[in-house]
């Protein structure tokens, strides 16, 4: 190892020391904050305490953000140091990432002609990536747009670029002319997924598009859920997205570790296995692939895992997607910012047999309430409640008034499981659910 390397090592050790000192100082500040609570008169006391608690909460939130940034810095430095060789090995490894070992889970990023968007997506994918070996990033570019290709190439060996060879025009029925983008996307997906599974022979792929921000625990989430996906044949995907993931519909404070099963295919950052691709690939549609996937013939009663709090957020679509829909819903999805160590949790509860038992029990045990009870702030916080719907219009009306998505695809409402939408509203856990004599989804509901 050369002189330069050992200088770099010294420098890194210094940086780590400084970071450690930073942590100690921070802890002292917080400690002081606790000790020097100002004395209050008895009349003011209650008010002051509330205010103090609010401040403390704000302070703790800031800290948690600070630590997660710090953790990432240390992780990166630790990794860089390991890459430098023996001399650079740390005496006491500060961060033991459980994500360095395990099956390879590649990320496939679908790109076209938006260089700034690709950069933004790649920057975050690389920022949070714990290991290049476990999580190789493959960017598949369609469209032949040069600035986008150059943007991807500027990341060098950190990512692999593959380019869709078929840039030919595509024949689209006259009345679907304005939806041509959907045809091009479906063709690109089929080619790119074939590359991932047939050419590179991966066992599973995490697929994202070039308009997604990811959460710090994105890789952790997919690592931990992969064994569940493999073990349970009634699951066919893991998605990082909650369609009803607006801040006022999820338990932001206490729900970061919560995961669910859903009959609705969410997409937007999702993982599939080779087995599923072998099934879907040969009959892949010419367009509208996501709605095709949601049709009963493809889904065959299978479910996806989805989080309470989204691990992806879309930052906008030009062209093919609906602008109003983006403003009203997609843009408001809350992106998780607290790191959850899913790989250290027991996720067996997501397997169908375990999950359904608990789920049915919870729904049945919940107090049946009306929309006025829910909106009137009359119910005890922390409880479980059930709002019942019987018709499509009934569902839509309730969903609308609560800010939930009110559409159906192949009769399944977004995030629905056994017809039930689970969400969190003003401190209440609520099931928007069909009556007990529910007979299954009605594909004519749209
Ligand atoms: C937080 O969630 C856990 C389960 O994830 C639950 O046991 C606990 O009661 C919740 N705490 C609050 C304050 O809601
Ligand atoms: C994991 O959870 C499942 C059910 O949720 C339980 O049956 C099993 O005993 C748990 N395993 C461990 C090691 O705690």
From TrEMBL:
Q: Please name the Gene3D superfamilies in this protein's record.
A: N-Acetylglucosaminyltransferase I, Domain 2, Spore Coat Polysaccharide Biosynthesis Protein SpsA, Chain A
Q: How is the cofactor bound?
A: The cofactor is mostly bound to the substrate.
Pathway recorded for this protein: Protein modification; protein glycosylation
Q: Which InterPro entries match?
A: Glyco_trans_13, Glycosyltransferase_13, Nucleotide-diphossugar_trans
Q: Which cofactor does it need?
A: Mn(2+)
| Recorded topology in the membrane | Single-pass type II membrane protein
Q: What are the TM regions of this chain, as residue ranges?
A: 16-35
Q: What is its biological role?
A: Initiates complex N-linked carbohydrate formation. Essential for the conversion of high-mannose to hybrid and complex N-glycans.
What's the protein here called? Alpha-1,3-mannosyl-glycoprotein 2-beta-N-acetylglucosaminyltransferase
Q: What is the lineage of its organism?
A: Eukaryota, Metazoa, Ecdysozoa, Arthropoda, Crustacea
């Amino acid at each position: 190892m050369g002189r330069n390397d050992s200088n770099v090592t010294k420098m890194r050790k210094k940086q780590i020391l400084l970071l450690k000192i930073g942590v100690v100082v921070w802890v002292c500040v917080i400690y002081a904050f606790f000790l020097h609570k100002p004395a209050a008169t008895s009349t003011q006391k209650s008010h002051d305490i509330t205010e103090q608690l609010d401040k403390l909460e704000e302070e703790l939130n800031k800290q948690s953000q600070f630590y997660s940034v710090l953790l990432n810095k240390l992780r990166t430095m630790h990794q860089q140091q390991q890459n430098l060789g023996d001399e650079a090995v740390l005496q006491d490894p500060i961060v033991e990432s459980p994500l360095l070992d395990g099956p390879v889970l590649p990320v496939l990023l679908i790109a076209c002609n938006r260089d700034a968007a690709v950069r933004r997506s790649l920057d975050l994918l690389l920022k949070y990536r714990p290991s290049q070996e476990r999580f190789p990033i493959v960017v598949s570019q369609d469209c032949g747009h040069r600035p986008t290709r150059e943007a991807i190439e500027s990341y060098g060996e950190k990512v692999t670029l593959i380019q869709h060879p078929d840039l030919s025009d595509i024949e689209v029925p006259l009345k679907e002319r304005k939806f041509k983008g959907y045809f091009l996307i479906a063709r690109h997906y089929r080619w790119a997924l074939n590359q991932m599974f047939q050419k590179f022979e991966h066992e599973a792929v995490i697929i994202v598009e070039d308009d997604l921000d990811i959460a710090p625990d994105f890789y952790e989430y997919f690592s931990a859920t992969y064994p569940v996906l493999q073990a349970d044949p009634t699951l066919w995907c893991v998605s990082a997205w909650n369609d009803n993931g607006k801040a006022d519909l999820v338990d932001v404070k206490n729900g970061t570790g919560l995961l669910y099963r859903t009959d609705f295919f969410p997409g937007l950052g999702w993982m599939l296995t080779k087995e599923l691709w072998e099934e879907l690939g040969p009959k892949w549609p010419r367009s509208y692939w996501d709605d095709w996937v949601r049709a009963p013939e493809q889904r065959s009663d299978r479910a996806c895992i989805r989080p309470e709090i989204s691990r992806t957020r879309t930052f906008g679509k030009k062209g093919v997607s609906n602008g109003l829909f983006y403003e009203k819903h997609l843009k408001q999805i809350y992106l998780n910012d607290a790191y959850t160590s899913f790989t250290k949790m027991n996720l067996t509860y997501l397997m169908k047999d375990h999950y359904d038992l608990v789920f049915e029990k919870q729904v049945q045990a919940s107090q049946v309430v009306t929309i006025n009870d829910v909106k009137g702030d009359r119910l005890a916080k922390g409880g479980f409640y059930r709002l019942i719907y019987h018709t499509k219009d009934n569902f839509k009306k309730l969903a609308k008034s609560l800010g939930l998505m009110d559409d159906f695809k192949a009769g399944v409402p977004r995030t629905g499981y056994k017809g039930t939408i689970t969400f969190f509203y003003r401190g209440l856990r609520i099931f928007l659910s069909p009556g007990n004599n529910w007979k299954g989804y009605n594909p004519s509901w749209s």
